[in-house]
Write a structure and sequence with these properties.
heteropentamer, A mainly alpha (about 325), B mainly alpha (about 300), C alpha/beta (about 325), D alpha/beta (about 280), C: about 325 residues, binds adenosine-5'-triphosphate, P-loop_NTPase (chains D, E), NitT/TauT family transport system ATP-binding protein (chains D, E), ATP hydrolysis activity (chains D, E), ABC_transporter-like_CS (chains D, E), transport (chains D, E)
Chain lengths: ~325, ~300, ~325, ~280, ~280
Amino acid sequence: MKHVTIILAGFVSLLLSLYLVSNYEGVYLQRPLWLTLVPVMLVGAWFSMVQLTILADNVTSKLAERFIGVMVPALFAFVLLVLWQLTVTGFSVPKVLLPAPSTILTTFVTHIDVLSKDFAQTWLKAVLVGWIIGCASGFIVALLIDGSPFLQKGFLPVGNIMSSIPIVGIAPIMVMWFGFDWQSKAAVVVIMTFFPMLVNTLAGLQARDSLHLDVLQTYACKRHQVLWYVQLPAALPFIFNALKVNSTLALIGAIVAEFFGTPIVGMGFRISTEVGRMNMDMVWATILVAALAGSISYGALALLESKLTFWHPSRRSK
Amino acid sequence: MKRLTHPLSIDSLKNSQPAALLLVLIALTILWYLAAFWLNSDLLIKGYERRGMTWDVSRLISDAYSMKRPLLPTPDQIGYELYKSIFETKISSKRSLVYHSGITLSSTLLGFLLGAFLGIVLAIGIVHSRTLERSLMPWVITSQTIPILAIAPMIIVVLGAMNFTGILPKAIISMYLSFFPVTIGMVKGLRAPDTLHMELLATYSASPEQTFRKLRWPSAMPYLFASLKIAIAASLVGAIVGELPTGAQGGLGSRLLSGSYYGQTIQIWSALVVAAILGSVLVALVGYFEKRVNRRMGITG
Amino acid sequence: TLTCSALAASMSQAADPLTLQLKWVTQAQFAGYYVALEKGFYEDEDLDMTIKPGGPDIAPPQVIAGGGADVIVEWMPAALASREKGLPLVNIGQIFNKSGMMLTCLKSSGIEKPMDVKDKTLGVWFFGNEYPFLAWMSKMAIATDGSEGGVTVLKQGFNVDPIFQGQADCVSTMVYNEYGQVLDGGLMPSELTVFSYQEQGVAMLEDGLYTTEDKLKDSAMVDKLARFLKASVKGWEWVANNPEEAAEIVLEYDDTGAQTLEHQVRMAKAVAKLIEGNSKGVGYLDPAAYDRTVEVLMSGDSSPVITTKPSGAWTHDIYEKSGL
Amino acid sequence: MSMTADVFEKSDVLAEFNPPQSARKMITIEDLSLVFETNDGPVNALSHIDLAIEEGGFVSFIGPSGCGKTTLLRVIADLERPTSGTILVDGTSPEDARLNRLYGYVFQAPALFPWRTIASNCKVPLEIFGLSKELQQQKTDKYLELVGLQDFHNKFPWQLSGGMQQRASIARALSFEPQLLLMDEPFGALDEITRDHLNLELLKIWHETGKTVVFVTHSIPEAVLLSTHIVVMSPRPGRIAKIIKSPLAKKRTLADRESPEFVAVMQEVREALANDHRID
Amino acid sequence: MSMTADVFEKSDVLAEFNPPQSARKMITIEDLSLVFETNDGPVNALSHIDLAIEEGGFVSFIGPSGCGKTTLLRVIADLERPTSGTILVDGTSPEDARLNRLYGYVFQAPALFPWRTIASNCKVPLEIFGLSKELQQQKTDKYLELVGLQDFHNKFPWQLSGGMQQRASIARALSFEPQLLLMDEPFGALDEITRDHLNLELLKIWHETGKTVVFVTHSIPEAVLLSTHIVVMSPRPGRIAKIIKSPLAKKRTLADRESPEFVAVMQEVREALANDHRID
Ligand SMILES: Nc1ncnc2c1ncn2[C@@H]1O[C@H](COP(=O)(O)OP(=O)(O)OP(=O)(O)O)[C@@H](O)[C@H]1O
Ligand SMILES: Nc1ncnc2c1ncn2[C@@H]1O[C@H](COP(=O)(O)OP(=O)(O)OP(=O)(O)O)[C@@H](O)[C@H]1O
Ligand SMILES: [Mg+2]
Ligand SMILES: [Mg+2]
């Protein structure tokens, strides 16, 4: 029962710091004795996390493991938030610079209608459509290029150049071409997500075992069969890498693109407008939405990946 | 295996890199001119009609290819602008694109180095500590969902208040964008070793550090280079994003911004072209190191 | 600017350092400060000035809150909004007497008078610059949510392209900048209908100088600011008399190398008109204009920018101390 | 040494051996050499090989480790290109033979796909050749049973022992019933009894279907038991030291191993091997 | 190379067998079972194994493919955890034995690092154990020569034949001269002569250094030639069918294979194997 004690100790130290935050706003940092409680809290929280991890790895029930598995990052986030709150309130950081987490949360809840409209505009339209088209085209181009040395030699350098074009540069042009609505944002996302997919898929397609290729060659396989039977399975881990990296890149791209002209809805619009209005709490609430959406889509992809690449050494060794 | 990827080897011309590249470039140029005409003429016709002017096709064509602020400038307009701002201007001049590329490049490289380093360190931590994996990994991912342009000004303000100006704030934004692909790729790569190889080292009771040096690191190489290529491109984007808020301090980003601000499409496009060239040179550079490392590891072709 | 100020610092050890954060990139909109720097007016006042240019996402109040500047150039609405958010900004001198912002519309879209904008698409700047527009619409009782009989609002980028590409019927312009771009783009003044917010009675005070309350409690700082205001105003007066040379000076300080002389000269001339007409000269905040701004800001029906009447948001102390 | 290229021409001892159609050559190799270029200088893997294999023959390659057996098999399978010399497989180039899906190849390592179950691994060639689903299932069942893996259909390769993986890969090569079987130490990782069993099964298949088999092995008794001809190779550079024709009848049983002919052939092979043996 | 197989000066009497110190147990296994959980239900890989191996013993595991030999070896090496039962290696847990670098393991597959040359592959354990550069070079030279790869120092693994790769992996396991050798079919891919040579070398090393060897093989003659004890295993669930103690002297020559004791032991093993054989 050693770890339970340690976990409890960690929680107690966290609660203590919370108590300080809520009751001695602004003054406690001037008292050195209380200040030392902060590292105590950090160490306590760390031990809690270590013990929770061990617990999660040894627990037999799947449900319990899931639960504890969520607890650890939650605890980590909680510590960060407490530190954030401590700093903001303790040092009286102006609200126009950095609002406290509690303020952000309140704003999030009270403005949920505006935020959900923005989310629909930016994520459901621009990000999703752009991500799908961008990943699909990167993937297809990788397939074409991998199969044909001619295309590889002709297109790879050009493709490289075109995909090194920074988003911030293309965003205004896309607005020019595709208008103010989400289509131009989706176009930016397409261009942003294309390259990571291309590079990763190519690397993956080339990561096949040469013995496996020999096997297929003895069957006089067509190229598409080689792809299907060996290259694609071997490339899956790489492809998922790209899908995951892209799921975050896409959101950034769409939001950045909205800085260059939009209808008056959308997460990027909200951020830049509210910064101008000094409503930093609203800005951070939007960031919170972005973080939630990004994390959830990433998590979903990771889940799918573990289902599809169960055979890969990186999964089997665990 | 070799023959599988050489279905076209009969035709030697088709296999020559310059020929292939040239063909693609010519095709693209033609497409570009067509697109420029299509986009620009639309604009022109609107203008003609608004003013009730009479116009014919030859006038339209010559106007479409010589607009001062076209919707899509033609390659020759961009080429001329590039020539002017690269060769006809002193490198140290603020009107030289070389000067601005230099500014962007320095923060890109600094950010890339910091990002690659941070990314690798995080990956090592995550691979070796279950606690770090469980606690840190989700937040590494979440960090990337925060739109960089939203926090870039804050970073610059905060660092500026701490008297860090110049390339460091921009490099930090580059780092923020570039560490992520490295972390994700390396976590995967460091876990990629063959089970049998891991067991072999277990029989030697090799320390984690030895396992890392002798097995994990070499097997992560393909993943490392794939992510470094993405990271360096992301780093360039970060440097340029970082140049927007500090828009007046030079760099390709500020050229883009001021071009956009004053509607100077030709200026935007030439900055874009330079950025793209810079990006692909950087990616090619990573590719060059990849080849060298591969050769040392006995992987040919 | 970095190297300039560093150099200046090493040359005159004794001079008092002071940092100014601009609202936007280096251009003739801020010619007065650059002239004062270039011509040594600040040096004469024993000031070691650093001028930080802004950009699209630099909010000067954030910079001053973070300690990155001593004084900022900001518009009144943003300054008052920050004040309500707990950053006590105080106007210490008003530079622009008139608003330069206006809505530029195409006659071909059938817009001749204000009410004609109904059912049209309008490009508007946000980032704190949208208040005059919203106030104007609310004054005319036109909805801004794109509904029937209202207007469709686009967040306009940094240029006036939407009017050329037919994406908007009207775009926001500054008289000293974008309006010129509209003309450059091939539109004749005769093809355009221009609504100046100044004339529509919804104008707000634009470029002014702001600092925080705590800085004003420090008498040494007050003294520095007074000297700063004096030198800046001297710079502005110089600009009004020599717009062409002022433009050249601005160009010197532009690190992007993207500005053109022609453009900056035009801007300098237009800006010179905006600083004119103040009863007590450049730098004096007219309380009546302030009251009008506050009134407009509080009038927004659905979401007013500020909810309570601010107090102590301006002071004439610095102006008086500067001996202008 | 005389490089009697034509190993089948004057085969006369046994009536059952040398059926009429066997005059046709399945594989003809003339003056074939192969050099690998490595970072460390060239390696002469094969040097001046002459060999002819008749249709319906069962030819074993035997020789010290590293003498070029695998390389020669790979040349026949069009997995390596010879540096010089000519080779015909079924009257065409190895490439055409491969494209015609003439042969099945059992690699020295199992080479199973980790992302597929055993049964699904076996189906790979069948899917590629476009067999119907029922036929696929039928063949897979048949050959997995033959190699004794009937209970392991749904396991993944890494859940099998080394020998079981090798058997799965044999089943995969047999499943599409190719005309020519190229087998690289297929039974190397198997115990004696399993090996005997599979030897008999292979003989039965060979005998019933008239396939041509080219077989690499390290076991002298196995080579003698199975083959019509035993090709003894020797290393550095890899070449053919001797070709030994088996006097055994085509129908063989395990009991043949006790026969004096059998022992005599074994002795002959052993001597040929020892003659020129170097370890490398 | 001369194949006069007698590596020991004199073939001695039985007295030398069973030296006094051999009372000490190197490995003690009691009622050990291991179940693999798979997508397809549990697999009983080992069931109720009891076994004791004395220090200085040479014990072979023999049994049909898939009977659990590799699994048992992996349990000894602490690469698998038993589901139940106890096991002691050198008086400690397998984990401590592994952490003490007590044993060298030769895997069933070569498991060489593709990015390292052969010599550099051999040096991996030596680098890990922190030997000086000269010592590393010396050991590598010695053992690569022993397995006949002296000319292949600078080749990469994929430039070697299957048998050569396996020999490289043997050299790697021998190079750091561990107390206990765990070898999983080390000579499976080798020709008879190379195999005989390496058998003798292994016997010599064993004899000279008093190592304990646990050895998996499919070759009955090899098992009998090398071992002091032969453990015959049988499958589903994997268990020990019989343990046969060899009456042969500790010093052995290839010629012993002709002796009547040898043939008798071979027969005993063969019977034990056939007794309970099923293919899977
Ligand atoms: N990782 C695993 N997961 C599931 N089952 C396994 C795993 N490893 C081995 N097995 C099963 O355990 C049994 C014993 O396997 P093991 O590898 O020990 O056999 P073996 O005696 O070494 O056979 P061989 O002589 O063919 O190498 C087999 O039925 C095999 O399918
Ligand atoms: N890809 C390659 N590159 C360079 N050398 C090679 C390559 N493949 C094989 N060799 C060399 O060619 C020679 C013959 O190899 P091969 O694999 O044909 O031997 P083998 O007779 O099959 O041996 P074994 O019985 O050990 O499998 C060896 O010396 C080997 O080092
Ligand atoms: Mg071989
Ligand atoms: Mg085994």
